[in-house]
Amino acid sequence: MKDADCIHFLQWALPRLGFRWAGFRRVRGQVCKRLGRRMTELGLKELSDYRALLEKHSEEWRQLDGLCRISVSRFYRDQGVWRWLERELPHELERQALTRGEFRLRIWSAGCASGEEPYTLALMFALGETPKRYEPAILATDADPHLLARARRACYSRSSLRELPATWRAAFERSGDAFCLSPAYRTPVRFLAQDIRRDVPDGRFDLVLCRNLVFTYFQAPLQAAIAGRLTEVLVPGGLLVLGSHESLPEAVSGLVQERPWLHRREMT
Fold it and tell me: What is the number of other CB atoms lying within 10 angstroms of the CB of residue 17?
């Protein structure tokens, strides 16, 4: 498959799934390889044949949607963000706990892929500088059941752990070529299959991490709609963390930007 042909196909197909081509430029090779494997499974040689199949069989769009999900992830990704959370979050916790009269932090990791982000949160609360009196309840969601199955197994390659603080790596046990997170550190995390394009979890959250997904790969109208839902599920004063290179649509209201990647829900 020629790169130019795959680009042309993706520019046609991605908007129909709610994605935007601009977000896929740097990762198109990964998607094109998956697409080539899918065409081989179907016995198709040309992208024009696959496009014709999509137009005739609507169920194939679900397969294509899965091929377009980018699952690049690792522990402690964007170290500056994690250092800030470890240093400053205790003060936020204390303020919010006093307001609610409790010491339980409700967190949502949206688009958690194979679990590195929510488990990094669990490790931060267990091994970082955050006061141990705060009990995190971490909900992690993703649309891909295969990634969620990997997340529940909690076994990773050495490269996935390379950015973790050295002292945190003791939380993993060697199993062949993999490093598996000890069960004690998995306890605060609950996984749920959910597509953020259509659903958000029940309840309200003190902290929501929605990084390197919605505001990178989705179209602007869908970004705005999801940003509104994220705002609604945050408690007043709650925090929304984006990817370090992401930004919210201009039309979003109810959030105050405190850092390029950090927004707080207004108290009103």
Answer: 19
Helices 28-42 and 60-67 sit at what angle, rounded to 10 degrees? 140
CATH number for the domain spanning 247: value is 3.40.50.150
Inside any domain, residue 73? no
Looking up tokens 């896929």 gives 24
Residues 40 and 124 in one domain: no
Region of 254 please: left (phi>0), alpha (psi -120 to 50) or beta: left
Specify the 3-state DSSP secondary structure of 11. Answer: helix
* Interatomic CA distance for residues 211 and 231, integer angstroms: 15
Joined tokens for residue 260: 């390029």
pLDDT tens figures, 142-200 = 999 999 999 999 999 999 999 999 999 999 999 999 999 999 999 999 999 999 999 99
Domain that holds residue 191: 79-265
Residues in the chain: 268
Q: What is the tens place of the pLDDT at every residue in 195-240?
A: 999 999 999 999 999 999 999 999 999 999 999 999 999 998 899 9
Q: Which residues of 180-216 are buried (b: 16+ CB within 10 A; e: fewer)?
A: bbeeebbebbebeebebeeebbeeebbbbbbbbbbbb
220/239 Cα distance (integer angstroms): 22
Pairing of strands 178-181, 189-193: unpaired
Q: Are residues 38 and 107 in the same domain?
A: no
User: How far is the C-alpha of 261 from the C-alpha of 139, rounded, in Å?
Assistant: 20
Other C-beta atoms lying within 10 Å of the C-beta of residue 11: 12
Q: What is the DSSP letter of 173?
A: E
- Token output for 70: 């980018």
